[in-house]
Structure formats: C-alpha cells, structure tokens
C-alpha cells in the first residue's frame, strides 16, 4: 500500500487533503467527516460544500483544465484516491461502460475486473457506448479475452478511452 501524502488545499490554506481522498484540519490534524451529496462524497470547508474528488485533483494535479472534468478510472464514485482519478472531457466521461454498479476499491470495475466487460449468464460480454449508442463487440469465455478484444476495438476505432492495458489490468 502506498504511503498517504497530505497537501494544503488551495485556496483553503487551513485544510489539507491526502492522496487517499481524506480531508483534515491542518492545525489539529482532525479528519473531516465526508457526507454523500448527489452520489459523491463532499465536505464543508468554511461553510462551502466541496466535492472530495475535485478537491483531490485540484490539489495534486493543479488548476482545472478548461473543458475537462474529473472522472473515476474504476467507476466507483466513492473511491477518491488520487490514483483512481483523472481529467477527461465530458464525452470521455459519458462513454464509460454501461454495466456501472456500486463498486468498492477491492472490486475495481465490476466483477470482471476490466473496463467494458460484464458477465451475462455463463459468458463475458464486451461492449462500448459511442454517442449514446451501445456497440456490441462480442461474447467470450473469459473476461481477459473480452478485455483484450475491447482494448483492440477502442484502439482501432480511436475512441477516447483509457484501455485496460493502460490501467495495468492486462
């Protein structure tokens, strides 16, 4: 497990956020309670509600790039670790696989362990969404075969997706 690193939150200089997505008061070291707001974890800093995933990205990755938003690599909205967050365009973010489920950090990206793959009966299905249309890629005996084919489809069609290989899942 990587070491937790704390950084001061701009412009909230009296607060710190960690690479594990925790927020604390700098002087006392007291970790703030996070509450759900619209399906995301949020905290109140100086009476202002701030989404934790946004706080982590701005603190560790710098100013918010124009036209970008924060997206979750493993699709788990409660997993605000820095290694699970990335900047993406709204289109890239909306093109996540359709099988979104509530997942924990111990089960990244659903039961298959891969992006774009889900189980249907005894087979593994690969599919991708492009402009609100579902494109069926194929059915496979193993999730790994499905993920390899999904990655190949994404690369060949130059879709704006982070592949399973790039995520280190293959």
Task: Set out the fold topology.
Blueprint: E1 6-8, E2 15-18, E3 23-25, E4 35-37, E5 40-45, E6 48-51, H1 52-61, E7 69-72, E8 85-88, H2 90-94, E9 117-120, E10 123-130, E11 133-140, H3 143-156
Antiparallel strand pairs: 1-2, 2-3, 4-5, 5-6, 7-8, 9-10, 10-11
List keywords for this structure.
170 residues; alpha+beta; GCC-box Binding Domain; 2 domains; 3-stranded antiparallel beta sheet; 3 helices; 11 strands; elongated
Structure overview:
The chain has 170 residues and is α+β, with helices and mostly antiparallel strands. Helix content is 17%, strand content 30%. It has two domains: 47 residues, no CATH class; 74 residues, AP2/ERF domain (GCC-box Binding Domain), CATH 3.30.730. The protein is elongated and about 55 Å long. The two termini are 20 Å apart.
The strand count comes to: 11
CATH level-4 homologous superfamily of the largest domain: AP2/ERF domain
Query: What is the 3D form?
Result: elongated
Order of helices and strands: EEEEEEHEEHEEEH
Largest sheet: 3 strands, antiparallel
Low-confidence runs: 98-108
Q: Strand share of the residues?
A: 25-35%
Which range best describes the helical content: under 10%, 10-25%, 25-40%, 40-55%, 55-70% or over 70%? 10-25%
**What structural category do the secondary elements indicate?**
alpha+beta
